[in-house]
Amino acid sequence: MASVTLDTLRKEFDRGTIVAVDDLDLEIEDGEFVTVVGPSGCGKTTTLRMVAGLEEPTSGTIRFDDEDVTDIHAKERPVAMVFQNYALYPHKTVMENMGFGLKMSTDMTKDERRERVTDMAEMMGIAHLLDDKPDELSGGQKQRVALGRAIAREPEVFLFDEPLSNLDAKLRTEMRAEIQKLQKEFGVTAMYVTHDQEEAMTMGDRLAILNDGKLQQVGAPTEVYENPVNEFVAGFIGSPSMNFIDVDVETDGTTAAIRSESVGLDLELSAEYVAGHDVETGPYTLGVRPENIKIVEGPTGDETLISTVEVVEPIGSDNYVHLDVNEDFLARSTPDIKPAAGDEVGIVFDEANIHLFDAETGEDVFLSDEEIAAAVV
Ligand code: ATP
User: Fold this and answer.
1) For 9-46, how does the pLDDT look when each residue is reduced to its tens digit (9 = 90+)?
2) 13 lines ligand 1 (CB under 6 A)
3) Ligand 1: centre distance to CA 20 (Å)
4) Is 43 in the pocket of ligand 1 (CB under 6 A)?
5) The whole model's pTM is what?
6) What are the structural domains, with CATH classification, of the chain?
7) Among 18, 100, 235, 263, which is least packed, fewest CB within 10 Å?
């Protein structure tokens, strides 16, 4: 199998007025599963299409191991791609669909192709469908055929473009696990594109987060969740999303306090915290995840701030408590904490669980320049 290296990869459209992919550097190790995630229009599909050879880069290079494949035709690249819309030929049977790539890209005999496809179909649990046409299949079966067809070609690099978007939630969960199992079993290097951060968190050895064509951070899902390098990543990864409040920090170098007059927030930082972090006086954006907020029914005034409950959404395992701190402020509490809409509650969070982002650049101010640089390779 092959490692994939993208080196200052760039794609412009419409004579440079649209920069879809902005000097992207990314390394996917041999056998690694990297999920590329970001909001609609951030350049995910364009990146994948350049790796597949379906889109010509404006500049930069793509290497498979040490081989520069930037100018190599799509057909000559050892890649297989799986799309959202399955891309099956409607008039061909499952057997013919699965064998078509082999017919076009190898010199295998018909019998050899049949054998390979039958083995693959057995592995994918679709051997009984080999004589069916695509319109006789369910969405999940179609996607299994598309996956089987891709694997049958024995690619070195597997490319997935939102392959599960057309499936219902239960099937999507099943297929996520199946794709990961297949990828590990075959040891194929994989690049998986999705706009769904929840899907991204459950798949992949590492996530690469894009915004506006620019790479924001690369890391293992938990690493990115716990140490987002900037406000964008902090808000994008995690569901429900991190809450943000505009604050002012005041410090004399030994003690410090975080305040926001508009929401009545007052959080004194400990001397250890101030000594351990590079806290400076100035405006910041404070971030806190919903699960790190404690709700106090019948507040005493000692809490971090006081707010009014807007609505409580029970989701079974937890309650989502919407608060009027600012727009979209939400705490995740245990089911026994169930205040009523209109109740005044105390909100407590502590310094161990907060993030502070530079009010201008959005960067996490407690990460060093080296840590930020390390987050994007
Ligand atoms: P989505 O999740 O919506 O598919 P994406 O992250 O995959 O989004 P791309 O499809 O890669 O994003 O598009 C990135 C940017 O490039 C967008 O602004 C898009 O409009 C633009 N773009 C993509 N293809 C073309 C094209 N052929 N001509 C002009 N602009 C394009």
Assistant:
1) 999 999 999 999 999 999 999 999 999 999 999 999 99
2) yes
3) 6
4) yes
5) 0.91
6) 4-232 (3.40.50.300), 234-368 (2.40.50.140)
7) 18
